[in-house]
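Example for tutorial group B:
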């Protein structure tokens, strides 16, 4: 894996009492990395408890993390141990930690500093020995500047920061992940572990994986479900983008990566890529990759429905207008 992740594994035992923070885009495998770090540490025989801070309602986060006493609030019919207590002696993985409300960040900071907490509805102090692994896809330092994240908590979590790179930046991990997922899904489905053809593996390694590890896992699972023999087959149609898009970045892909650009810009650049790909083809569009996107190639111009148009080998049906300046392609109306 990448050097920062290797460092986290090597230091797993040394950082068993320190907070670790992972940062990476959605689907980069932060939870998998957290599990691996936990298993490589001296806390491996204690529980690993996972909490997604973004999935819990603000009114329940405090109770889930720190617990509550019976009668602490309406509906609290029994005493409840929080996730910190459940993970005592082990590891608590806080995913999307940047979503925590400011008022709870102070309580989290106290647990990190002193190892102490109180359940909701109780004044009794409980001591815990819980190692924190926090993950986020946000820029927490920017959150500090904007006043959405506590500065002292940021530096407390910054003891051992690890950047989880996107899958396209660590392509050497793809074969390892593919074999891992193949074995897991074969076991889950009760099938013999199939082999992965070399050409299929090369295709997977060429692909840009915008959905990162999560997308790879989904593709492998689909192939495992559909497998009928001893060889795993992958259909290129399952992949969101063409493999060469990652090898030759375009303005559109750069805009997507930065989260910038308007919808019209992305549509325009996508049309240009497909036109370039199909410019010299003489087959009907239904045999080209562009046919998968029927009805999407358009630029909104006043909402006037102008019928069906053809550009090169790409068709668009029931759309507004197709107009790509500078391509030399003039939209031509087809017979209805």
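The residue assignment follows.
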């Amino acid at each position: 894996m990448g050097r920062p992740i290797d460092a986290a594994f090597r230091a797993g035992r040394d950082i068993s009492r320190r907070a670790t923070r992972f940062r990476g885009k959605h689907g980069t495998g932060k939870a998998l990395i957290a599990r691996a770090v936990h298993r490589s540490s001296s806390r491996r025989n204690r529980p690993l408890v996972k909490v997604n801070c973004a999935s819990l309602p603000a009114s329940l986060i405090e109770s889930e993390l720190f617990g509550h006493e019976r009668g602490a609030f309406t509906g609290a019919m029994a005493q409840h141990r929080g996730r910190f207590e459940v993970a005592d002696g082990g590891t608590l993985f806080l995913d999307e930690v940047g979503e925590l409300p400011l008022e709870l960040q102070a309580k989290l900071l106290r647990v990190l500093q002193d190892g102490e907490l109180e359940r909701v509805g109780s004044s009794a102090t409980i001591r815990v020995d819980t190692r924190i692994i926090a993950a986020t896809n946000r820029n927490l330092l920017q959150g500090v500047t904007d006043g959405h994240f506590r500065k002292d908590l940021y530096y407390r979590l910054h003891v051992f920061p690890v950047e989880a790179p996107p899958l396209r930046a660590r392509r050497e991990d793809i074969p390892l992940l593919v074999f891992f997922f193949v074995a897991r899904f074969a076991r889950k489905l009760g099938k013999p572990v199939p082999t992965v053809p070399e050409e299929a593996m090369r295709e997977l390694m060429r692909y840009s994986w915008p959905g990162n590890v999560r997308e790879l896992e989904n593709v492998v699972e689909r192939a495992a479900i559909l497998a009928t023999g001893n060889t795993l087959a992958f259909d290129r149609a399952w992949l969101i983008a063409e493999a060469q898009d990652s090898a030759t970045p375009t303005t559109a892909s750069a805009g997507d990566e930065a989260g910038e650009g308007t919808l019209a810009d992305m549509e325009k650049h996508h049309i240009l890529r497909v036109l370039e790909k199909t410019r010299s083809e003489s087959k009907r569009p239904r045999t080209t990759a562009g046919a998968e996107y029927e009805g999407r190639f358009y630029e909104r111009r006043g909402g006037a429905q102008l019928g069906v148009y053809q550009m090169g080998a790409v068709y668009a049906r029931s759309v507004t207008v197709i107009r790509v300046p500078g391509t030399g392609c003039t939209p031509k109306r087809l017979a209805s």
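The first strand starts at residue 20 and ends at 23. Compare this with the pattern of hydrophobic and polar residues in the output above.
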